[in-house]
């Protein structure tokens, strides 16, 4: 098909290294927030976000539970907005993630959490904004305005900001060091050509994306972008869950994109990948020594999974134009979701 005109999505993906670098340079201000949060007194952490921001929250869940040893719950804003019931969150760590900073349900959930005694942190692109105003502490990601409906650079910036906060709360020197290397990794990531996915995506009846642990949020994000930008039915699962009920739906027409990180989850990813390939399923693996998709080699799991987004986003944007779609304006969608 003939490509459409150049998109806003492509240059926004290209801004990711600079945006991540700005977030990482804000480490002193993030460290100052971390010192005031008193997570030792927190009974749990609650993460609040929708769409891509919610997927960044899934990534943070695994960082919080593995580094801070706090149980994590996903916020259900409808409890506050539809059912109009307050939730007791005294001393809890409440993190809201929002690119637009304008969604009323996120504002209401954050205000309610703060009123109930939670320590509220907003990881937000736009400051000032209603979400930022509702929180006690603000970590601005300063990615600039998104012209494309599909969030890319703001997703990467939100993940980097969240990882930076957890690194300070946990005094995780290895994660700090990996974040320092992240902009350079992102800068080299556009050279990773994932076009070998193209043929399988074009003929697919559905796409499955799988990972585990720190990679699960990016699996969700990748499936969202496949549906949002390429209009392909797409589902994301933990690689462990993929071997249960969803396994029955896999066939030669349902390729699997597998994201492997060099951590404790790698063995399961390798085993599932081998089993699916033996069954005739097309599996595209990113990460590890046997990566079938171009990959520069493993670094730190928390930053590798952020890096994986760049070649994936670039492929999605290019295929959308090749297939005659506008990657910036998917049908029936808008930047701010006014759920209330």
From TrEMBL:
Sorted UniProt keywords: Aminotransferase, Repeat, Transferase
UniProt cross-references to InterPro entries, sorted A to Z: GlmS/AgaS_SIS (IPR035466), GlmS/FrlB_SIS (IPR035490), SIS_dom (IPR001347), SIS_dom_sf (IPR046348)
GO molecular function term, any single one: carbohydrate derivative binding
Domain SIS as annotated: residue spans: 33-175, 197-325
An annotated GO BP: carbohydrate derivative metabolic process
Pfam families xref list: SIS
Domain of life assignment: Bacteria
Endpoints of the signal sequence: none
Protein name: Glucosamine--fructose-6-phosphate aminotransferase (Isomerizing)
